[in-house]
Amino acid sequence: MAGRPSLRVVIVGGGTSGWMAAAALARLLPGRCSLHLIESEAIGVIGVGEATLPHIRGFVERLGIREADFMAWTRGTFKLGIEFRDWGKIGDSYVHPFGTFGRGKGDVDFHHYWTRLRRAGVAVPPLEHFSYACMLARGNRFDLPATDPDKLASTYGYAYQFDALLFAPYLRRIAEGLGARRTEGKVVEVLRDGASGNITAVRLEDGQAIQGDLFIDCSGFRSLLLGEALAEPFEDWNHWLPADRAVAMPCRTETAVTPYTSAIAMPAGWRWRIPLQHRTGNGYVYASAFTTDEDAARALTGAVEGAPLADPRPLRFRAGRRRRSWAHNCVAIGLASGFLEPLESTSIYLVQQAITALIELFPDSAKCAIERDEFNRLIDMEYDRIRDFLILHYHATTRTDTDFWNYVRTMTVPDSLAEKIELFRRAGRVVKYREGVFLDASWIAVYIGQGIEPEGYDPRADLPDATMLTRSMQALHGEIAATVAQVPEHLHYIDRYCAMAAAA
Predict the structure, then answer these.
(1) Torsion over CA of 263, 265, 268 and 274, rounded to 10 degrees?
(2) CB atoms within 10 A of CB 157
(3) What does residue 262 show for φ and ψ, rounded to 5 degrees?
(4) Cys staple from 259: which of 208, 228, 284, 490, with CB 3.0 to 4.6 Å?
């Protein structure tokens, strides 16, 4: 990188977003930037984003972090997917796995063969019985995936469930060890250049002005730089995702430390359950138009499995995103850029993708129009596609028992989602993207898990002999069950691999 200029990068806000950005920039762009992070302990952090997607493993690896050490410090557990309970109708349960259905090989996806037999009247087990990841999760078992692509145990990935309040301090140690500077203080003024509109400095409560070339807004929902100082408009998606509040509360773990997150439908939204090594995280995400804060807090307190470890903590938010996440010389990352409820654990993923895009498009100067436009294209795409996926969960319900579920069931959805649903309903087809987070198996799990079964299927699924296809499917079902039975229980694996650090 010799000869290329070094930019003064100022990060406003710490927490998960700020320290993820600081650690990644310090590790992956040495010499290209000097890092100065400003945060105020008086403001605090949200600290409830405890569940992740498999992409986080790549982030941990690129930072040179040993997985077992990271999990022990953050008191982490493994995550094979997300269980959805009572979403299609009360009594339903399905798992969105981080893995394939079938062996994940061939030109025709497994669910087309499954659909063919179902429509022919053949009694076949539910689709999730043909997912190794689903059956590991149901069996409360875990092991690292196999590296041999011919083995069933290679057909899945995994993510982490960890204590978000321990994650940021862990990353802070890494970032500061790589040269990032931290200043304690509250930003009270944002200074801008009169000609370009670029931010030139931020002034702190004690009077000092911290100058920079590129500013990263990690100030949370307030969006101090992008939203307040630069007045970047916010695109509100509340009409599609009406949940606008949450109440969170940890409790003692009384049941299984499951290798998955649970999302349990409630009268006016849904409740999360995230088991860690030392406690279980709980929260009720709800729409304030359909219930009161007091009723939501009572519902959560009455639903948790063990003794509460803190009082219910209220949160308020709006679903949506800023029109641009990068404006002038300011890049917003995390909640300062936008918010999508944690139904599919996408919050930290969106932070990671913004950081990755920034590193790949890192400019040589504050004049960065081309890099800025491409960054915004990528981040807008991520938000829009995740938005559609989240709306699907609500809209695909058949529940009629509360006003909330009647609303989401009958609401008009984006054309982009309506087309996806119709394509799957008619022929079992999943819209494929070269970019974006959720692959075919994710969409298939939600479609079929909530009762949208295809009326047709890929014509190539008719090629195998029906008897041979049935026998093959029976053999796969038996092989998955037998292989899963040999895998260690989740908690036993954790105790051997990454038992929580006493110092955490």
Answers:
(1) -20
(2) 18
(3) -110, 140
(4) 490
Cα angle 326, 328, 332 (rounded to 5 degrees) comes to: 30
CB 504 within 8 A of CB 166: yes
Provide the 8-state DSSP code for 65: -
State the CATH architecture for 7-77+162-237+320-384.
Answer: 3-Layer(bba) Sandwich (3.50)
> At 385, which helix (H) or strand (E)?
helix 369-395
Residue 466 has pLDDT above 50, yes or no: yes
Q: Give me the pLDDT at residue 20, please.
A: 97
- The tokens describing 217, both together, are 């807004």
The burial class, CB within 10 Å (0-12 / 13-18 / 19+), for 83 is: buried
Does this model's pTM top 0.85? My answer is: yes
Domain ranges of the chain: 7-77+162-237+320-384, 99-156+414-489, 245-316
Check if 186 is active-site.
no
Pick the more confident residue, 198 or 439: 198
Distances (CA, A) of 48 to 109, 168, 171, 393, 398: 36, 12, 16, 22, 30
Dihedrals phi, psi of 384, to nearest 5 degrees: -65, -40
